[in-house]
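Researcher: Go.
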Amino acid sequence: MGKRPLMTVMKYVDKVVRVKLKNELVYEGKMTECDNYMNIVIEKAVEYEGNGRKATYPRILIRGNNIMYIQLQPMLSEL
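Model: Structure:
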């Protein structure tokens, strides 16, 4: 990500991302907001735990200090 990871993450707004949290949960969906603390909002979020799908949510807020990584998902179709 380079020297400015926040600027890179902000470029992912309105794109489909995969977010892994420190508690091992993974979320996929369209990131619609990101603030200076890297708190993000994901719409049409799909939650994965372990090896399978756990739940879906219309909109979630993820606190930035819980994020392990954010990965752009360019191959997924628009959600």
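Model: The radius of gyration is 12 Å.
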